[in-house]
Amino acid sequence: DRHGAAAGLTQGWHLSHTTRQNIRNSELAPLGMRAWQIKDELRQGARKPYKELIDVSSADPHRAGVKPLSFVRQVLAVCYYPQLAKSDKLPADVRQRAQRLLGTCAGGSAGSYCPAGGIPEIIDIVCEFISRRDDGVPSYPENIFITSGAQRAFVEILNILVNTLRSPITGVLTPCPSYPPGNMAVVMLGGAVVPYYLDEEQGWELKIDELHRALESAKGVCDPTVLYVINPGNPTGHVQSRKSIEEVIRFASEKRLFLMVDEVYQDSVFEQESRFVSYKKVLAEMGPPLSHTVEMASFHSVSKGFIGECGLRGGYVELVNVDPSVMRNLYTLMSRDASTTTGQLALDLMINPPQPGDPSYPLTAITLHISDLRVLEVLNSLPGISCQPVKGGGYALPRLHLPPGAIQKAKEVGMLPDYFYCSRLLEETELCVGAGSENGQRESTYHIRYRQSSDEVLRRLTSFHIQFMKDFS
Amino acid sequence: DRHGAAAGLTQGWHLSHTTRQNIRNSELAPLGMRAWQIKDELRQGARKPYKELIDVSSADPHRAGVKPLSFVRQVLAVCYYPQLAKSDKLPADVRQRAQRLLGTCAGGSAGSYCPAGGIPEIIDIVCEFISRRDDGVPSYPENIFITSGAQRAFVEILNILVNTLRSPITGVLTPCPSYPPGNMAVVMLGGAVVPYYLDEEQGWELKIDELHRALESAKGVCDPTVLYVINPGNPTGHVQSRKSIEEVIRFASEKRLFLMVDEVYQDSVFEQESRFVSYKKVLAEMGPPLSHTVEMASFHSVSKGFIGECGLRGGYVELVNVDPSVMRNLYTLMSRDASTTTGQLALDLMINPPQPGDPSYPLTAITLHISDLRVLEVLNSLPGISCQPVKGGGYALPRLHLPPGAIQKAKEVGMLPDYFYCSRLLEETELCVGAGSENGQRESTYHIRYRQSSDEVLRRLTSFHIQFMKDFS
Ligand SMILES: Cc1ncc(COP(=O)(O)O)c(C=O)c1O
Ligand SMILES: Cc1ncc(COP(=O)(O)O)c(C=O)c1O
């Protein structure tokens, strides 16, 4: 059943929300909850093979133990406690930046309310960033909303696109594997998820034929009016080429689909050959009539990129070619968003990192290269595991070729095979990775999802995996 | 027309959202927008009677120029930049507090995602606070949601109470004068505002007879199922007695109304004779059957109280006697809320201020007493102005007895009379106060709303007012 993924999610949603404990942890996968417990057990002195739990199942770098950037934290600290700027212990660029940012706040304080929709100066800064990024394609303040994170913006935009009063209900073409809260939002708002499968063998490429197939399959079930794309891919790590983006835009235009483009990983492209190109730039360069007609929303977030501050809740959405009447509804919806002052200020920090010559520049160099080629080599050399190149994004998504014995055993204990693997890995090595079934995957394929953060991850994974394969073959 | 207030709000809502500039400033009243401009004009060297604009129209203390508390800001600064704790320049209690709070965050970082619904430790801290406040009446973690501010929580709760599919639509009994975003939320969600008038002559007391009248007046128009109460009052500054609260609870029970109790000003009671008593405590002490049946939601926020941090977006809602099926819906809705980590940590700071003996205690003493008796004396000694005692809350709401000439002039220039007064005040003295018409007021009565913050406010107001009364009589 094509709508299995959506149905599964709906069910999962209700099930996992019947108890309070689950709710509290609803942003964690079930494995994440167990990881949380193990951490407690370790703290209380339980004896386990490893002394420290490593949780790389989520895209949250700080949860995984990555240290935040001092530049970012220093500026935020001064914004909260401006007296710190008096000491010359903090770099000059930190103090100047904080002063400039405080100037955008009402009463010069990070503790005052922000105008709904965003601080005007920050909106202007976002526009400058976008047109710089897109080699001059203009960006207009009236098309930008600053929000408390990309996820929130996504929900508000979907809110006006999903029509539950009409029959059949609105369908949203959604990648598989996907970012689960995206699917969740569609289902919660009363829409239907129509999965299109990314082509794993081709490095998780998005194929237009598959979009056609997915659209066709929705006939009689729902009315697809939205196409959700994640580029760079999460959790798949692919990066779309300009040509691929052009194809998607043409498809959206032909089928009159609203493009929801999740570009939160735009600053996270690691592979030498790949480059992030925005949908907006490609659309603009395709010229009329497409450049004036294809409706689009693009998302970005301070949870990602070199800053990785998930707890601040800051992001923006830019809208392109959206009908003025729809924009008016959006204004109303967006003004309900309670965006924090520091979340907004952090957008400036993400967009304008220290430059060469600035005192804070040397410390701001990006330290994390998930696509470390050596990692791929190690993974691909193991029996029963294969991994596509990770060109960008936050994760690696290796495929597990599980022996029939392991699949049988999983059935017996009532778990999905990949979840069974992850659960054993967690119990035996205190390493928490995510199960591919949470993101969706082609039937009878199994994956694990993890955020590469240290060699130790690879060591634990390797030793567990070899033993696991032995046990079940 | 009884529903004039709601209709007016709806209209105002759409009007003020047709242009982008208005949206951006939608949390500001129109006067607030003009104040923003004047500030700019002053910065660019415009010659005006006073060199500095004072904006006391909003409840945002930092916008009005109040300095934030160092204790709060120091702890937040350390949370963002833990290295600061190494210096012994910061007080020991600041460093200890920050360390404890960081211990509640995933990965020990304020930059990691929070569990939806709230950080469990912070929820427990909120429960302890509530039962301490209520002399031992218990509070349960499963009834608390941490949210990105009280306003957000209010919208989410209303979301499940307002039924737009049924006819007649849901009515919400709402105080008049009121907190405008509350009314806005009702209208936006498709409900109807049913105003009940507070009794100005009796110090803005809530009278049960008036609740009966309002309920009666809704017949045939809407189906009132919710009663919204603000105690301590905003912008009215009244504080309900235990007896008054008991009456309201009995009324709610009799009429089967869900009680939305906005208690964000619970720490802001200034008058010697008055004391804040929570609805939850009174309900518990009334005993069964009421204590087990009356459904209630109570709100609190870090935007208020001694902390006054509006930009952090932190608050909580506690639910009482809510049906498990409704709670399940709420879990789902609340998990959409994107609450920031620091907003949650700030709740602890609000709830557990430094105690006598702590290094930060002396600086944390409350400096702001809006109900300064001298202020009332001055106001009440002026011709054409009268002000009820301000017992708590964030505002004073003096009544203007405008001469017919002023009302006539306002009509000519197409302004509401109180708005006309405020607009002249702003242009002539760079003092921005709010117009009572924004909060709602009985027909043919006029008020101004302002947050007392300095003697300078009173000086500008006095000199303007005397001249204004002369000009129009
Ligand atoms: C693809 C994708 N979109 C959106 C988000 C959410 O971003 P935010 O934290 O700004 O809500 C994430 C976070 O993991 C993500 O991976
Ligand atoms: C009565 C009342 N309720 C709620 C709020 C909103 O609080 P928050 O900033 O937490 O959304 C305010 C703010 O002014 C208020 O006065």
Write out key terms for the chains shown:
homodimer, 473 residues, alpha/beta, Aspartate Aminotransferase, domain 1, Aspartate Aminotransferase, domain 2, four-stranded antiparallel beta sheet, 12% strand, disordered N terminus, binds pyridoxal-5'-phosphate
Protein architecture, described:
The structure is a homodimer of 473-residue chains. Chain A has 473 residues and is an alpha/beta fold. The first copy, chain A, folds into two domains: 29-66 and 368-472, Alpha-Beta Complex (Aspartate Aminotransferase, domain 1); 106-351, 3-Layer(aba) Sandwich (Aspartate Aminotransferase, domain 2). Chain A is 41% helix and 12% strand. Chain A has 18 helices and 13 strands. Chain A has helices at 4-15, 20-24, 30-43, 70-80, 92-102, 120-133, 150-161, 180-188, 208-217, 242-254, 279-286, 290-293, 324-334, 341-351, 373-381, 404-412, 417-429, 455-471, and strands at 54-55, 144-147, 170-176, 192-197, 223-230, 258-262, 296-301, 315-320, 385-386, 399-400, 431-432, 434-435, 446-449. In chain A, helix 8 (180-188) links the parallel strand 3 and strand 4. The structure holds pyridoxal-5'-phosphate (PLP) (2 copies). Residues 59, 149-151, 179, 230, 234, 262, 264, 301, 303, 310, 315 of chain A line the site of one pyridoxal-5'-phosphate (PLP). Residues 59, 149-151, 179, 230, 234, 262, 264, 301, 303, 310, 315 of chain B line the site of one pyridoxal-5'-phosphate (PLP). Chains A, B: Its cofactor is pyridoxal 5'-phosphate. Chains A, B: It is an enzyme of class 2 (transferase). Chains A, B: Keywords: Aminotransferase, Pyridoxal phosphate, Transferase. Chains A, B: InterPro entries: ALAT1/2-like, Aminotransferase_I/II_large, PyrdxlP-dep_Trfase, PyrdxlP-dep_Trfase_major, PyrdxlP-dep_Trfase_small.
